[in-house]
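Schema walk-through. Below, the input block comes first and the output block second. Nothing else is stored per chain. Lengths vary across the set, and this one has 672 residues.
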Amino acid sequence: MSLAAASRAALLTAVSWSAFVGVAAAQEAPQTAELDDVIVTGAPYGISARATTIATTVIDEETLAAAPAASLGDLVAGLPGMRSTDFAPGASRPVIRGLSGPRVQVLTNGIGLIDASSVSPDHQVATDPAEANRIEIVRGPATLAYGGTAIGGVVNVLDNRIPTELPDGVDGMVSTQASSVDGGWSVSGRATFALGPVAVSLDGVSKQADDYDIPAPAISQRLADAEGIPRGPGGTQPNSFSELDSRGLGLSWIGSRGFIGASVKDLSSTYGVVAEEDVFIQLEQTREDLRGELTLDGGPFQRITGAWGHADYTHTEFEGPGAPGTIFQSDGWEARADLVQRSRDGWNGAIGAQTLSRSFEAIGDEAFVPGSETEEAGIYTVQRLDRDRWGLEGGLRYDRRSVRAAPLSGGPEIDRDFNNWSGSAAAFIKPMADLFLGISLAHNERAPSEVELFADGLHVATGVYETGDPTLDNETVTTIEGTVHYDVGRFRGDLHVYASKYDGFIDERDTGAVFVDGGESFPVFQFVQTGADFRGFEAEAAWDLWSEGDRGLSLEGAADFVRAETDLGPAARIPPWSLTARLAWTSTPLDAALEVRRVAEQDRLAAYELGTDAYTMVNLSASWRPFADKAIAVFAEGHNLTDTEAREHVSFLKDRAPLPGRNFRAGISYRF
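--- output ---
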C-alpha cells in the first residue's frame, strides 16, 4: 500500500472511531459547564475563547456600534495576526498570518458569501461590518468545519437577521458617525420585534465617503526612485471614494424546541478603483438565507442545525461615465447541516456536512479568467474532551471539489476533480485554574481556485498579465501550534506560536516575460507550485495598573510576526512585525484609550517587490455614556494624529496609495 493510500485509510479509520467515541460519550451521565466568551466559529457546540487551542478574536456588538465605517478588511487590520489587502476603502479583504484570497474564508452566519471577492483584490467583500452584531475571527488552519478555502483562517460575520429568540418588546440599535479625512458619514440600524411566536428583523446601512486625504504623495519614494517617475503633489488619494447601501428583512418562527426562519438582503455599492484613474465599480447582490435549529428529546445528539444561502451577484467595472467594461457575475448556493452531540462527562462534538454549487462568469475585454462551474461537498467531525486538568481536541474532514471551465485561449472544456483530506489533533493541560497550555497539529488540503487554474489575461487591477496552470494539484500544509492563556491577578495574556510547512504551495511568480498592450508593458506572472515554510506568533497582554470600584487603568499590548520562505525565495506580500501598546481607562460613564502602534520595515522581499518603510501611528479614542443604563454612547476618535505616511506591505497598491492621513471621527449610538 502506498503512503498516500495508507494515510487515507488511517483517516477513514479515525473518522469512524471519532464518530463512534462521540456517540458513546453522549450516552454517559450529564454534566454542565460554564463558558465565558463562547465561540461558535470552528466548533458548532461552542467553546470558551480562553479554553481552546484555536486562535480566536471576537469583535462584539458594543465595539461594532462605535467602530469606524470601514470595509471588513480595514476594520480587522491591526488585530493580532491580521492585516488588510487595503485596495482603497471600497475593496479591502482580510489577511490572516500573511495569507489572503482563496486561503481566507469570509462567512456570514457560517455560510460563504458567494461573491467574487477572492478573484481580485479590487473586488469588494459583499458584506459590511455595520450589518453585524458580532464578528468572530479564527486564525490558522483549525477550521475543519469550513473546508479547504479556510486553510488560512475564517472571518465569520454574525448578524441577527434571522432571530433565534423572541425579543422582549423591541430590541435593536442605531448608530451614526462622520469622519474628517474623507468627508464621510454613515448611518446604520436594526430592530427586532415579536408578532406572537414570529420574530421580525429589519436592518439597514448607508454610508458615503469622498476621496481621502493622504499625508504624502500617492507615489512612494521607493517606486519613484525605481521607475524614475515624479511622486506628484499628494494631498488627496485619487479615485478612492466609496458608497454603500444595504437593506435586510428576516422572519423567524420560534418555539420551545427551536426555530426556523428566512431572510433576504439587497446590497449595492459603488467605489473607485485606485489602481485605474476614472474607473469605478458598481456591485449588486441579492441574497436569501434559511436557517433553523431543532432540539432533540433524547439519544446521542442534543440538536440539529441547518443553514442554506443563495446569492445572485453582479460586479460591473466602468471606465468613466461610458458603457460598462468588464462584468463579473456569480450565482450559487451553499448549505450545511450539523448534528451536535449531547454533552456528557466533558465530551462535546459535532458531525456535519456542507455542499455548494456556484456559477461564475467574467464578460468583457479585460476578463482575465474564464467562466466556470464549481461543485463541492464535504463531511466532517470535530470533537473535544475536557477534564479538570487536561483535555483533547480534534477533527477530520473530507471534501470533493469539481471545477469546469473553457480556457480563454480556446480548446476543449477542462474538468478537474480534487479530493481533499484534512485532520487536526490537540492536547492541553490546565496546571492551575488560570493557566491553559496547549499544542495542536493540523494537516489541511486546499484545491486550487479558478484564478490559479485558468487565469489567462491582463489583470489591470494588479498591473500584471496572469497565467494560470490547469494542471495544479492540491495545496497541502502541516501546522504545529502552541497556545498559552494566562489570567492571574492583575495580568492577562495570550500567546500563539506556529510553524507551517506547505507542499505544493501555490505561488504567483514573475516569469521575466513582458506583455505589451497599447504601448504599455506588463510583466507576465505564472501560478506555480513550490514548497514553503511559514512561522510566526501572536501575543496579547494586559496589566491592571490601578482600580477602584468601577474605575480602572490598564496597560495593554499586542505583537505579531510572520516569516514566509518558499523554495523560490521569500513569499510575496508578507507583513512585517508589529507592536501595539495601549493605555486604557475604563469606568461606568467613560472609556478612553491612547494607542501607539509600530509597524516595522519589510526588507525580506520576493524578486519583484519593493520594500516598505516602517511607521509609527498614534491614536486616541473615547466613549462617553451619559446615562447609567449605557443605552446611549457618544464616541470620538483621533486616528493617525501625527499624520504619518504609512503603507501596508500586503497591498498590491502600497506604492501608489498610502493609508489615510490624520482623521477625526465622532458619532453616537443607541442600543434599545
